[in-house]
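Look over this today:
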Amino acid sequence: MAAYEDARADKMEQWKQQPESALALAILFDQFPRNMFRGSPRSFESDGLARDVAAQALDHDFDRQLSPEQRQFFYLPFMHSENLNDQKRCVDLYEKLGDEFASDFARQHHDIIERFGRFPHRNQVLGRDTTLEEAEFLKDHAGF
């Protein structure tokens, strides 16, 4: 928890300078809160930070210096984004990676954002109203 709070307070800025440490920072921002704060709005509070770290890492081709399995953790912040451009980028990244299962999963996320502009399964946790169309969708799709 202390490492997460330090990272959120910009005390780990130097971690962005190397592929492995940037990857660790992306995971810290993207994955840790989803597990530490599950069921709380805090589980999504550092999504933007994770996406920023991942985008900077990709700008420096850090993903190409890592294994395909590691690369995926740079791509997940785009998958978790409710921004359609991030979703398009995610699909492209996974398709280039050549992992059909992950590519399909990325397309599923993309299609939800394209349709609703957000992930309806987050509505309750984030205190958002759910539309009738979203409620119908959620009957068959509880989330990821």
The first helix runs from residue 2 to 8. The two ends are 24 Å apart (CA to CA).
